[in-house]
Inverse folding.
């Protein structure tokens, strides 16, 4: 009986640890409605598991997930194309939770250039 309880306990811990890690991967956490955010880049992370931006916009600091590193770089969003302080326009889908300043971008417009990191999800914006 101790082995069964131990296995159940271990499984519970594993599931509990995985849920936060999956919280902002995929699209389930986003609204289906198109969303556009304009602001100023405060931070840029180009790396795994996906590229992210911190953007100061009306309402506060937004966390923006782009695509995974490979997909973002294939779209041309690489080191040096954007800098802290640059104006940015982001097209995508915001969090389902209105009080959470977070979105997933499908298109990034910065310095006169457009980067479609999820070109297969652009239809609502065209």
């Amino acid at each position: 009986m101790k082995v069964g309880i131990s296995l159940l306990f271990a499984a519970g811990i594993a599931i509990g640890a995985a849920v936060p890690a999956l919280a902002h991967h995929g699209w389930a956490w986003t609204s289906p409605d198109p969303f556009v955010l304009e602001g100023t880049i405060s931070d840029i992370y180009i790396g795994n598991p996906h590229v992210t931006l911190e953007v100061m916009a009306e309402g506060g600091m937004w966390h923006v997930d782009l695509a995974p590193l490979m997909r973002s770089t294939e779209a041309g969003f690489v080191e040096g194309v954007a800098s802290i302080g640059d104006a940015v326009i982001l097209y995508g889908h915001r969090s389902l939770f209105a009080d959470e300043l977070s979105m997933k971008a499908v298109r990034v417009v910065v310095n006169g250039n457009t980067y479609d990191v999820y070109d297969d999800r652009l239809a609502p914006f065209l």
